[in-house]
Amino acid sequence: MHSREIEARPPEPALAPAPRRPGLLETPWSYASRRPDGLLALQLCGVLPADWTLQLTRGLAWRGASLQTGYARRTEGGAWLAELAVDDRLEARLDSIDFLALATRPHEPLRRAEPRILEFELGASAAHGGSLALEVHAWDAVGLVAAVLGRAAGVGLVAAELILATEEECAFHHLGLVDRRGAAPSACQRRDLELVVSELLPG
Which of 39, 51, 84, 88 could form a disulfide with 70 if both were Cys (CB 3.0 to 4.6 A apart)? Predict the structure, then answer.
């Protein structure tokens, strides 16, 4: 078995209240502002492509940035609510980037070694009509979330939920995964996911 119990888990965030204006949850939009600690606060909302979390994290990784904390969750109606903190302090600042475009167009994986993870736990969840709950503990690194989501995409899975926490350069990330139709993953996909994620463990 390549996984083991992770002692620390990210806290469960409260969902932002649904906007009152009709149609606002369906129409995609994004908004970014600079936080006092230097991180970029990113909000996204609306109906987005199934793989938008993968494309966003890959796009950020190409720019030397990474997701640090926050959440992204698909609602029952299919729209997304996301509040994320982006660390873009290593390279060019991203204040003027169109994050909605970044999340909705394809990006190739980084042409560099994937970040390693320290440990992971994989289990079944009743959330989102049946999903796989993947919890990852790793040293924070550019491309970490993109690497894990890329491995999931390789076995036909996408995120229905992300809960991200980073503290003192340690990342504790939770991913709720479903198949590309939004249905519960098969037993075969679970086995394949465990195999490909275990390849990110230290050799």
Answer: 84
